[in-house]
Amino acid sequence: MKKILIVGGGSAGWITASYLIAVLNAQGRQSVSVSVVESPTVGRIGVGEATVPSIRQTLSRIGIDELAFMKGADATFKNAIRFDNWRHPESPGFYHPFDRRASDLSDGVAADWVASARNVTWADSVSALAPLSKEGYAPKALDWPSYGSSFPYAYHMDAEKFADQLATHSTARGVQHIRDDVVDVAFGDDGNVSAVRLKSGSLIAADLFIDCSGFASVLIEKALGVGWVDFSPWLLCDRAVAMRVPYDVYYPGRIKPFTTSKALSSGWVWDIGLSDRRGRGYVYSSAFIDDDAAEAELRAEEGEHCDRLDVRRLRFRVGRRQKFWSKNVISIGLSSGFIEPLESTALYTVEFAVSALCDYFPHGEGDLEVVRRKYNAVNEALFDEILDFINLHYCLSQRADTAFWREATKRERMTETIAARLALWRRKPPSHLDFDKPLQLFSQQSYEYILYGMNFKGNDTAPLRQAPVVISKQVQKIVAASRQKFPKHEEWLARKLDAPNYSN
Ligand SMILES: Cc1cc2nc3c(=O)[nH]c(=O)nc-3n(C[C@H](O)[C@H](O)[C@H](O)COP(=O)(O)OP(=O)(O)OC[C@H]3O[C@@H](n4cnc5c(N)ncnc54)[C@H](O)[C@@H]3O)c2cc1C
Question: Class of 2-49+158-230+321-383 per CATH?
Answer without folding.
Answer: alpha beta
